[in-house]
Task: inverse folding
């Protein structure tokens, strides 16, 4: 009985990691601008993304497990649903993270999806390492993805404010040059 459970969990983890690259490409295709922003955020450092995502990740998993254990029929469905939605949310950030890894591995700027595939393949293969990959690297990647996705919204607002300020400064300089020419 115990051996069957271990084998089932092992096969689930391997199947999840083998299909992960397709999910990351899907997230990259659907949320392209967000994954580009996340890739830029991840290239600036991973510590901030990890700590931004740590509390929401732990809280969501704890909440889903508590609901799944203590609720009746609806809770048995609600717990895995919450975990699945959290996994999808984190995979959006993880897609940007593996794109950043892929950009460091290959220098093909013409085909952005190749960088996601290369980074996703290297991340997935690293996560196949028993114990270290399953229980440390993969959850850390999801936490980084969650934190990066959370930071992406404020990063986009900050970048648009900087672009507006730069545009305003350029317009002011152009107007002052036109006035000085007259």
Result:
């Amino acid at each position: 009985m115990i051996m069957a459970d271990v084998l089932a969990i092992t096969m689930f983890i391997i199947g999840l990691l083998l299909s992960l690259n397709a999910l990351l490409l899907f997230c990259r295709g659907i949320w392209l601008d967000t994954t580009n922003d996340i890739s830029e955020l991840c290239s600036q450092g991973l510590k901030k993304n990890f700590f931004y995502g740590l509390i929401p990740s732990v809280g969501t998993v704890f909440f889903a497990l508590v609901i799944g254990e203590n609720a009746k029929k609806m809770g048995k469905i609600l717990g895995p649903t919450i975990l699945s939605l959290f996994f999808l949310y984190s995979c959006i950030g993880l897609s940007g993270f593996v794109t950043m890894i892929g950009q460091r591995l290959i220098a093909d700027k013409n085909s952005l999806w190749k960088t996601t595939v290369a980074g996703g393949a290297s991340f997935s293969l690293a996560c196949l390492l028993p114990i270290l990959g399953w229980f440390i690297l993969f959850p850390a990647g999801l936490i980084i993805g969650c934190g990066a996705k959370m930071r992406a919204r404020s990063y986009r607002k900050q970048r648009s404010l900087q672009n507006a300020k730069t545009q305003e400064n350029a317009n002011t300089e152009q107007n002052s040059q036109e006035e000085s020419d007259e």
